[in-house]
């Protein structure tokens, strides 16, 4: 039986559409935002893998600087703010509120866990209206190691006195679920976009395209 | 004094232009190839970070499958071969032959080290005409852990009985140099394209845009 749900934030609970729109104001190629995000994730994984830590916002900025240089475009402070500022104002996906309500009814704890800094996480929870709906929340600032490295999953389990097999991670990122699965957590994939779950990563225990359906399966799990 | 030079292969010694041209046959958006490569690197780093290993070619294929799915395009076996087959036939950059010759004259050992499989590495060395110019070569197949994790750098040092401070890694990838630097190797960045060296990675000891100039600096180093 699942007693706690950990939720990834960016792209899992929060819709990145404003970020995509911001990139669209400076680039016509629709893959630029994907390239930037993938470059950012690669850098966070490299840094975590080499046992270092840097604020995710700083890494976002460094990746953005490179993308502008690669395209011979000037990145002004205004543009930086226009693009990266969207992160603080991302709306929750439509299915999130009902999903969290169902968890509350079922008396299952709700804990967002994110690679973003604690400051960003607080801002995101406040702006999206999710803050009052969660039990607590953690940024990787607490362990200074990005997901999908084990430090974060282990920290939350210890801090909240959770058993791994009674805890599920809900995420739209296969690499995040892969890391959590390695630590024995139950994993639930919410498919937010058309792509392929990496066939070489550990498979999720559950998979859905609508968060309320996924939550129903989590409530009934085992 | 530097006694051995380790060379990264893809994009460092070998020119990825044929790969970019192949993507151009299926996508108009010039960022697709960058997105795909970044996605591939992210997956190799995630897998290495979680202590697993998969052939780099298989990861290349998985990333390609996702990119086609994301674009509602059908990926036939012919297209797969057309794109990924270019990897085996990449030419060396113009400055490579003279650079390797200078190292030979200076009696410095030349050792390619790559994330590609051993089979791919052999094919690349043969097709590019570099095979007879190198002393030996290693794929991460030997350690089953991708660069930039320490296993590969440590393996080559031990296997070849090299001192870290007499060994330099030449690469165009900041993340590779960062990993090598962490293990105490000297690092030399060959800038092959316009982008930003990640400001949060350890800086390289040397940096040049032409390989022969970089090699001259390596020969005179310390």
TrEMBL record, chains A, B:
Q: Which Pfam families match?
A: HAD_2
SUPFAM superfamilies per record = HAD-like
Q: Which InterPro entries does the entry mention?
A: 2-HAD, HAD-like_sf, HAD-SF_hydro_IA, HAD_2, HAD_sf, PGP-like_dom2, S-2-haloacid_dehalogenase
Keywords in UniProt for this one? Answer: Hydrolase
Which Gene Ontology molecular function entries are recorded, alphabetically?
A: hydrolase activity, acting on acid halide bonds, in C-halide compounds
Q: Which PANTHER family match?
A: HALOACID DEHALOGENASE, TYPE II (AFU_ORTHOLOGUE AFUA_2G07750)-RELATED (PTHR43316:SF3), HYDROLASE, HALOACID DELAHOGENASE-RELATED (PTHR43316)
Q: Which family does it belong to?
A: Belongs to the HAD-like hydrolase superfamily. S-2-haloalkanoic acid dehalogenase family.
Protein name, as recorded: 2-haloacid dehalogenase
